[in-house]
Design a protein that fits this description.
single chain, membrane, mainly alpha, LivM-like, transmembrane helix, ABC-type branched-chain amino acid transport system permease component, about 350 residues
Length: about 350
């Protein structure tokens, strides 16, 4: 009989979380099966998947983009506008979003990838800034400007509406993260995936052996952007509205931090980084305002009350002490343990 792998086991255990009334003190404010905890976990899964889509570009292909937020925003705003402003049904909306999520990165990627290195990063940033301005201008009243728009749930299936159905949104987000993981693993393990990693290591050498890097980089760009847009759709259903924060450069920088934190170009690193960063970002603010922290001396209370300070300190600590990211930590510890055990065995 074929054994169930660790990834499938972890996925099965995570899928059972809504049935477990277990308290996890400090980490969550309620039991695992409570709506608040399930929504937080669902948000963590969404960012785990989006971070992995960014890692496909940055970690596996070596393309530093500052505009990945634009494609998350495509999923968020295109879905919200079609459902709320145009009052389309769910399936026409998803077909429209899928078309835009493929066509837009195909066009913008074809332009951006004409240059490389920091110039590519600046061009992607420029396109993302154009998206930000477009949202802020609120054309035809579609985007809601700085206020954003709330999602009309008339055409959304009932299983994804209401607090009592939070567990279904949790499973949707978990399914999204699992699907992104499978797609990225299949893509990276394919012939194109080997070329992506060769481009990351030395693009000139790829050209010398007779391959044109441009189509391969464009394929990675379109696939990563499409997966990010799918994450935007799930994020919209989870949050219940579109806000301009998903269009900003800070959003992309957060994805970059997630990938570096977990480990760029590793099997699980980006997902671990995305999950952990989102969890800390959501929980550190509450912990900083707790009576336990507020009762500390100023020298401890002030930094512990600032979530961004703590996240920054964690990022610096990981960069200095775990250069490969948290995803590679078990392998490093195993290597350290093996090196220490060898002299003892030889003595």
């Amino acid at each position: 009989m074929r054994r169930i792998g660790p990834a499938a086991t972890a996925l099965l255990l995570l899928a059972l979380a809504p049935a477990l009334a277990i308290d996890v003190p400090v980490v969550f404010t309620g039991p695992l099966d409570s709506p608040g905890t399930l929504q937080l976990l669902a948000l963590c899964f969404v960012f785990a998947g989006v971070a992995l889509s960014y890692d496909l570009l940055f970690g596996f292909t070596g393309l530093l983009s500052f505009g990945h937020a634009l494609y998350v925003a495509v999923g968020v705003y295109a879905t919200a506008i079609a459902l709320t402003k145009w009052e389309w049904g769910l399936w026409p909306t998803l077909a429209f979003v899928a078309f835009v999520a493929l066509a837009l990165p195909l066009v913008l990627g074809a332009v951006s990838l004409r240059v490389g290195g920091i110039a590519f990063a600046m061009v992607t940033l420029a396109f993302a800034q154009a998206g930000t301005v477009l949202v802020q201008k609120n054309p035809y009243g579609w985007t809601g400007g700085e206020e954003g728009i709330g999602l009309a749930f008339d055409h959304v299936p009932d299983v994804f509406v209401g607090v009592l159905n939070t567990k279904n949104l949790y499973w949707l987000a978990l399914g999204y993260a699992a699907a992104v993981f499978v797609v990225v693993r299949l893509a990276v393990g394919s012939s194109a995936g080997h070329v992506w990693r060769a481009i990351r290591e030395n693009e000139r050498r790829v050209e010398v052996i007779g391959l044109r890097p441009f189509p391969f980089k464009l394929a990675a760009f379109v696939l990563a952007s499409f997966l990010a847009s799918a994450g935007g759709v799930v994020w919209l259903l989870l949050i219940g509205g579109a806000t301009p924060e998903v269009t900003t450069a800070n959003f992309t920088l957060s994805l970059l931090v997630m990938v570096v934190l977990g480990g760029a170009g590793t099997r699980y690193g980006a997902m671990i980084g995305g999950f952990l960063y989102t969890l800390l970002d959501q929980r550190l603010g509450s912990l900083g305002g707790s009576s336990a922290v507020q009762g500390l001396p100023d020298v401890l209370r002030v930094p512990l009350s600032e979530p961004l300070f703590l996240l920054g300190a964690l990022f610096v600590a990981v960069v200095f002490f775990v250069p490969g990211g948290l995803g590679g930590l078990p392998l490093r510890l195993r290597g350290l343990w093996t090196r220490r055990a060898q002299p003892e065995a030889g003595s």
